[in-house]
Design goal:
The chain is about 30% helix and about 25% strand. With about 425 residues, it is of the alpha/beta class. Pfam families: DAO.
């Protein structure tokens, strides 16, 4: 069967891989000149079921309100005249109850665990390199009260079979020797030994190369999707700036751009761009970088090492499609990471980036068929966990395309 995948980020390329493995003739279409040029370009890189908590929690409204006056908040609300921002934010707030946060977090961690298994399988089957580290992740707490809360909150993830344990500063330093000189800055940490990290962009580009060379997947780059040609209840072709592509099935993996195209197909997707910031620095021989990734929980600053680079990420900004950034935007996260790893990287040579996460109010992605056309399948809305969720989401989507029962039950995550 001919399948057209719209989008060549980590979600689109892993989906193409699974579809090609199932024997389909796959074409991937993307408006940029290479894979992983959008949200997957410089994300946090953590493969982190141990951090699968939903953002829409009872404490989120207070943080967003405070962000109107304090730019240091991890969640920032930037008011605008965009009606979609207010509509999406209202849905987000409606998910900020304890009951809904628990439900959404459990769905997220189940999908993350399934996806991590699939990612490990893809890496083993293909030999694709992505600077992966599998020594676990450390979630660091500076204050006794936040450490107590963080340790207690792990129960919701542990109930789904995920191993997490609270560790002392001394044990955290044994797990990552780079913390030895600063361990007294922390009250403790939560360690998830099965978590890991890796460069999503390197993975996506190497997997795309494998798909093209070994599985016959065709990639159309610099091809902007413009619309669809339909016949009855089916899509016949997708039209692009490089011509039209006919297929039997179409898979929408367009991240923050998905809602506009879905609307043309009779589907309203509650996906909105939430801006995140990252900075990547080179690691020199004289540096002492982290040996495992982690999160400074009191500052919500994440970090990971990719070979000879260290990446630091922070902030979720409700600011629409604005990707602009300036050095001042990175001041807080750089101060936090230099406090933990004073000699972690060459901080004098930062590479700044800001990208847009395709978030749903629940924090869980959207799968399945919907709308007026029977041969459109959705795989969108992975938010800040797209790297972690990508491989599992790809397998779910491939199962839906071939009309088989998915190996993972996406209940509560199907398109409405």
């Amino acid at each position: 069967m001919r399948v057209a995948v719209l989008g060549a980020g980590v979600v689109g390329v892993t989906t193409a891989y699974e579809l090609a493995r199932d024997g389909h003739e796959v074409t991937v279409i993307d408006r940029l000149s290479e894979a992983a040029g959008e949200t997957s370009f410089a994300n946090a890189g953590l493969v982190a079921p141990g951090h699968a908590y939903t953002w829409s929690s009872p404490k989120a409204p207070r943080i967003l309100l405070r962000s109107l006056f304090d730019d240091s908040q991890a969640l920032r609300f930037k008011p605008s005249l965009d009606v979609r921002l207010w509509s999406w934010s209202w849905k987000f707030l409606m998910n900020c109850t304890a009951e809904k946060a628990r439900t959404n977090t459990k769905r997220k961690v189940r999908l993350c665990r399934y996806s991590q298994e699939r990612l490990e399988g893809i890496a083993a089957d293909t030999g694709v390199d992505y600077h992966g580290l599998d020594g676990g992740l450390l979630y660091l707490y500076r204050k006794p009260e936040s450490f107590a809360r963080g340790s207690a909150n792990t129960r919701i993830l542990s109930e789904e079979g995920l191993e997490l344990r609270a560790v002392s500063p001394d044990e955290a330093a044994r797990i990552d020797p780079a913390l030895a000189s600063v361990k007294d800055k922390f009250a403790g940490a939560v360690y998830c030994p099965s978590d890991g990290s890796g460069d999503a962009r390197v993975f996506t580009q190497n997997l795309a190369r494998h798909c093209a060379e070994e599985l016959g997947v065709k990639f159309m780059f610099d091809a902007e999707v413009r619309g669809f040609e339909t016949s009855g209840d089916r899509i016949a072709r997708v039209t692009t700036s490089k011509g039209s592509v006919a297929a039997d099935e179409f898979v929408l993996c367009l991240g923050v751009f998905a809602p506009d195209f879905a609307r043309r197909l009779g589907v309203s997707l509650p996906v909105y761009p939430i801006k995140g910031y990252s900075v990547t620095m080179p690691i020199e021989a004289t540096n002492l970088p982290p040996t495992v990734g982690g999160v400074d929980e009191d500052n919500l600053v994440a970090y990971a090492r990719f070979g000879d680079r260290m990446r630091v990420t922070a902030t979720a900004e409700f600011a629409g499609f604005d990707r602009s950034h300036k050095p001042e935007d990175f001041r807080h996260m750089l101060a936090a990471i230099r406090d933990i790893f004073p000699n972690g990287a060459d901080y004098a040579r930062p590479q700044y980036w800001a990208g847009l996460r395709p978030m749903t109010p629940e924090g869980t992605p959207i799968f399945g068929r919907g709308g007026r056309f029977a041969n459109m399948v959705f795989n969108v809305g992975h938010g800040h966990m797209g790297w972690t969720m990508s491989a599992g989401s790809a397998r779910i989507t491939a199962d839906i395309v071939k009309k088989a029962k998915p190996g993972f039950d996406p209940a509560g995550m199907l398109v409405q």
